[in-house]
Structure formats: structure tokens, C-alpha cells
Amino acid sequence: MTGDAEFFDEMRDPGGAVREAYAGYCDWFDDQETALLRRKHTEAESNFRKTGITFNVYSEEEAEERLIPFDMVPRVITAAEWRKLTRGIEQRVSALNAFMHDLYHRQEIIRAGRIPERLFRNNDAWLPHMVGFTPPGGIYTHIVGIDLVRTGPDEFYVLEDNARTPSGVSYMLENRETMMAMFPELFMRVPVESVSDYPRRLAKSLAACAPDCTVGKPTVAVLTPGIYNSAYFEHAFLADQMGAELVEGSDLRVIDGRVAMRTTSGYQPVDVIYRRVDDDFLDPLTFNEDSVLGVPAIMDVYRAGGVTIANAPGTGVADDKAIYSFMPEIVEFYTGEKPLLPNVETHRCADEESRKYVLDNLAELVVKEVHGSGGYGMLIGPTATKKQIAEFRKKIADKPENYIAQPTLALSTCPIFTKKGLAPRHVDLRPFVLVSPDKIDITPGGLTRVALDEGSLVVNSSQGGGTKDTWVLKD
Question: How big is the chain by its Cα radius of gyration, in Å?
Fold first, then answer.
């Protein structure tokens, strides 16, 4: 396998020698028969299909259910690299929670002139209903996914923050389980940190955030929009693995100031709700009155301290890409330290000077909607047509505050298994973080997403990307 000199190859150095992280894996791989590996690859795909690990892709015409492609070559990170990453992630997540509290209370960061007030005054993700209220335990972002990209041996950047409802952890767990089932001997040869206890750690972390009115062991429930949601597999998977209840809005009601769950022996109080329902649909009496996915009056119970909602309503502000562009200032303001993990250089189209630069250089930049996700609503300048560039030029001119732009990153590559052998493809990484009142817990690994098409820089599963197991080596 040969890499592209433009991009950092995580497996081999420029001379073709295997890097330290991949030494154990490559020794094992070289001993394997190609025919056996091809059979295993087919088996893995069959296993994912039988398990039901799919997601929905929504288009203007229809919703299509697809299998998420799995690549069986792991992405490997050394223990030393992971220690450095965890320090940076902890710092960032601490700052995010402090920022959320400040934003819904005294807004000291705005008073200090570190970020402009306009960023959230007209932001749909900012909820006036949360002003002056502190969630149980003081935690806003209980489950966080920080998307990272790598551009060099010691160069990791934060691409975006997912503080509302980060998804993908079920694929991290299934990828590992599949790898261990297919290649048990490989894990005997290469010492890899475990990720399998994530559901237990999630349950423990959520229980630690239970409200003061909890009696005995906290009851935890996962609130799902239902079977037609694109991430329903994950909702059901996590509830099952945690030993928590999987509920829909119709299973819950407010009784005597508590949120209660329908059971065979009547309604029983729920202490913590891990919600996978967007803010707008959470409570039809507070938000969207037409919602049938949420629970009427749940926000009243929440504000009265009768239930914990994870993640807290209103945390979507932190997912805003315009807010992201101020994260270096946010980290420094709340921690007193320079960010250990830098942002990708970001141009805010709302700023006149930045907008002029972006419009003059659209063919070289990546343009994103500030509220966009899943790879939708993007312009990748170097691969865009003249028509697409012209369309985005008009969009930016019409509504500049809706867009940010970033340079086209030289994303690192990891090998994938192809019919012709190993071939480099671009990757990113989403580590998963659990936050409780006394601990920030980062699972060693995360979800590596991979652009399966040669030359593609878009790793999102909704745009044709796949996933692979992520190994953090033990010391």
C-alpha cells in the first residue's frame, strides 16, 4: 500500500516503514491469507445486516434505509497520543459546561466582550425557558461527542462539537464486538483498551445526575422518537445494554409533579431521561404544540427539579458552528488556559472582512451552515462545480450569518481493506465523553468514520462513508 504524500498516513511513514502504532497489527496481517480476509469481510457485512445496524438517509423524495459500511482494518492510536487527546477533550468539555451555565445565567463572557451577543439572541437553539435554571448536578452536556481530525504526527484539530444528542456510540461498540468475534487471536497479540463497558459507565454517569427527589436506585429511561427515527437502532441498543427502559412520549405522563412511566403495575416515577428527541418536540405545552413525540408539561417538572433530562434542553447552542469559531476564547475564559486542542481556522461570514475573503476564495474553501449536520448543506470548493459555487455565493450574500468557511483540510489517512489489498482513505474520529458532577469519563477510542471513496474527504455515513474499529493501545 502506498500513501499520498500530501496527507499524513497514520500507518506508514514517508519511506514506507510501518509506524509504531501499527507494528503489531501489520505483523499479524502479513501472516493472514487474503482469501480468508475476504471471507471475513463478507461475514462482517452479513452480521451487521442480521443485527439490523442500519440508518435512514433522508432526501427530498424518500427515506431510504441503508447498511452502514464497516471496514475491518482498525484505526490505531498509541497510549501516549491518547493521553494527550484526553487532556484536550477534558478541558474543552469542562469549558462547554461552564459556558452553558454562564449563557443561561449571568452571561459574563458576553459582558466581558469575548463573544458577541448576536450569536445566541437570534439562535433557535438558545432556549429562554432555561434562563436562571441550573440542571441537577449542574451538568448541561452529559454525553458529548467531539469530532477530531488529524493532519500530522502530532497535529489533531477539533472539527466540531456535538453537545446536543451525539450519535454513533452503538457503532463503536458493534465494530469492536465484530472485530473480536472475527479475529480473537489478534486481540491476544495486540493489547487494546476495552470499550465494551461504555453502557455500564453511561448508566452510572446518568444515575449520578439524578435529581434530589430520587428515592433508592435511580430509574433511567431512554426517550426515543420511535422506530422510524434514523438512530432508532442505537436508542434500543443502548437501553438494552444499560438495563434502562426504552420509552416513547406516549409511555410517559406527568403525575403528582413527577414524570411517570407506564408499566404493567401502573405508572412508576422516572428519575433520569436520556432523551433522543430534539428540543422542539420535547414538550408540546412549551415548544411545538403539534408534537406527539414528547411529554406534555415535562419542562415544568424539569424546572421544578423533579427529573433530569440528558442532555439538557438548550445545549444545541454549543453545536452552532458560529459558536464553535469562538471556542478558543470560550476555553480560555472559563479555564484560564490556552486550548490544548486547537480549532480548525474558521471564517465567519457574518463579519464583513471575513465574508469578502470567503467570497473571493470559494473554490478553495469548505463552506458550512452554522446549524448544519450530517454533511448536508456544505460546499466543498475544490470539488464543486461552477454552478454550485455560484449558488453558495448567492446564499452567503443573502444570509451571511448562516455560514462559516474553513480551509480544505489535509485529513490523515488510514488503510481500508479492498479487493486489491490495503488502500488509504481519509478518516475522522468521534470520541465519546460522559460528564457527571464529579467526573469526566472518556471512552478510550471512539467512532472512526472513513470516506470509502478514493479521494473523498466526506466521511459522514449519510454521504457514503463507513466506520471502523478504533484501537487505543495499552502501555
Answer: 23
